[in-house]
Amino acid sequence: MLGGPYVMFGDGELAACKPISERDLASYMAECITDSSLQNKILPIGGPGEALTPLQQSEILFQAAGVPPNTIKVPIQIMDGAIWVFDQLAKVGR
């Protein structure tokens, strides 16, 4: 089976989310456009079950695929550098 590594920041446990299918997300977004009671609000969105960390998601995916885990853990400090670069570009674009 071909495939690349699962890339995550830090130890893979810095955040968690409730994965949602593209179809369900698109349906929810369309409903938010057409239903005025859902507009201009912060709304909860996510799939069923508990929130999963990227590390948990990778374990589930590799097990389902029947292949050994192959992850890359990127140091979170790299994001600090990326933020600095984008801040500088934003200043130039003003």
DSSP strand content: 5-15%
Structural class, by secondary structure, is mainly alpha
pLDDT average, as an integer? 90
> How many runs of DSSP E, i.e. beta strands?
2
Quick synopsis:
With 94 residues, the chain is mainly α. The protein is built from 3 helices and 2 strands; from the N terminus they run E-H-H-E-H.
Describe, in plain words, how this protein is organized in 3D.
With 94 residues, this protein is mainly alpha-helical. The model has no long low-confidence stretch (mean pLDDT 90). The N and C termini lie far apart (48 Å). The longest helix has 16 residues, at 77-92. It has a two-stranded parallel ribbon. The chain is 44% helix and 9% strand. The protein has helices at residues 22-34, 54-65, 77-92; strands spanning 6-9, 71-74. It is built from three helices and two strands.
List the helices and strands and how they pair.
Blueprint: E1 6-9, H1 22-34, H2 54-65, E2 71-74, H3 77-92
Parallel strand pairs: 1-2
What labels would you give this structure?
two-stranded parallel sheet; 2 strands; 3 helices; 94 residues; mainly alpha
